[in-house]
Amino acid sequence: MPARTASYSRPRAATIEELLQTATRPLFSFEFFPPRDETSARQLWQAVRELESLGPDFVSVTYGASGSTRERTITATETIAQHTTLRSVAHLTCASQSRDQLRRVIGAYAAAGVRHVLAIRGDMPGGPTEPWVRHPDGLANATELVALVRELGDFCVGVGAFPDPHPQSSDAALDARILVDKARAGASFAITQLFFDAHSYFALVDRVRALGCDLPIIPGIMPITNVRQVTRFAELSGAPLPAAVTRRIQAVADDDDAVRRVGIELGTELSEALLAGGAPGLHYYTQNRSRATREIYANLHR
Ligand code: FAD
Question: pLDDT tens-digit profile of 82-104?
C-alpha cells in the first residue's frame, strides 16, 4: 500500500465530504444491491459482515428500477444504518417517479438515520440505451435530484460520473459539464461508473478540473471474477475493455480459477495505478460477494 495510507481514527459523525477534506489516506468503500429473496439476503448480510471487518469509510446500496426493489433498498439501507458500524449511502434515482414519490423516499431515508444520498437519474425499464423520458410530474436529470435532496434535508449528496462517455451521450466534454452542474447544484463527491483503464479516470478528472471544479471523484472498480460477467457489465456501462485486459482474460478463458486470479491481478493493478495518481478513494462494486474485494484489498495492504 502506498505510504499515504497511514491509518487514522475516523470520527463517526463526519460526513463523506468532511472525510474527503481531512483524510490523510484514500477512502475505501463498497457497493451492494438490495436482496431479491431470502437466499440473496443471506448472501448480502454475509458480505456486509465480512467487509465490515475491513473498516470501510462507507458502503452504498443501489436503488432498484421498480417499486418492490425500491422498498428493499430502503430496508437494506436502514438495516445497515441501524445494525452495523458502517456509514451508509442510499442511492436514489428519479426515473419513473413523481416529485411527491421522491420526497417520500427522501423522508424515509431521513427517518432511518441516513445522511448520505447518491443522487442518480436512473434509466428507463429497457436499460441505459432506451431513450430517457421524464415522469410527467418528475425531474429531468440527476442535477435536479441533487437540488431536491439538498432542499429537503441536511444530506451529504454524491453523484455518478463517467470516465468513459455515458451510453446516451458519447460526448466526454458534455459529461464533464454535467458533472460540474451537479457539483454546483450541491453535490459533495462523485463516484464513477466502472471502467478498466486508469487513463480514462484521470482524463475525466482533468476535464472537470479544467472547468474550475474541484469535486472529489472516487473511482468505481468492478472486480472481474468471470468472463460472462465482465463482458455483460462492459456492454451495459459502455466501458470499453482495453485490449490488454481482454488478452489476459482470454488467455485463461477456459479455466474459471485462472480467470478469477487474473481478474484479481487486474483489479489490484488498476487500484494501485489510481492511488499512485492521487485518486481520493476506491469504491468497489462487490456484487454482494466479499471475496474478490477482500483479496484486492489484501493485495493493496501487502
Ligand atoms: P445524469 O447526470 O442526469 O445524466 C444522464 C444523461 O442525461 C447524460 O449523459 C446526458 O445524456 C443527459 N443529460 C443530463 N443532464 C443534462 C444536461 N444538463 N444537458 C444535456 N444533457 C443532459 N442506476 C440505478 O437504476 N440505480 C442505482 O442505484 C444506480 N447507481 C449508480 C451509481 C453510480 C456510481 C453510477 C455511475 C451509475 C448508477 N446507476 C444506477 C446507473 C445510472 O442510473 C445510469 O448511468 C443513468 O443513465 C445516468 O445516471 P446519472 O445520474 O449519471 O444521470
Answer: 889 999 999 999 999 999 999 99
Q: Is residue 105 part of a domain?
A: yes
In a domain, 51, yes or no: yes
Write out pLDDT tens, residues 236-261. Answer: 777 888 889 989 999 999 999 999 99
Considering the domain boundaries, does residue 1 fall inside one?
A: no
Residue 211 sits in a domain of what CATH number?
3.20.20.220
d(CA 60, CA 240): 25
Asked if residue 88 has its Cβ within 6 Å of ligand 1, the reply is: no
- The predicted model scores a pTM of 0.94
Burial of 275 (0-12, 13-18, 19+ CB in 10 A): buried
32/76 Cα distance (integer angstroms): 9
Q: How many CA atoms lie within 13 A of 206 on its CB side?
A: 8
Task: Please tell me the distance from the alpha carbon of residue 97 to that of residue 115, in angstroms, as a whole number.
Answer: 21
Within-domain flag for 92? yes
How far, in Å, is the centroid of ligand 1 from the Cα of 29? 20
> How many domains does the structure of the chain reveal?
1
31 flagged as catalytic: yes
142 lines ligand 1 (CB under 6 A): yes
Domain with 73, as residue range(s), is: 16-300
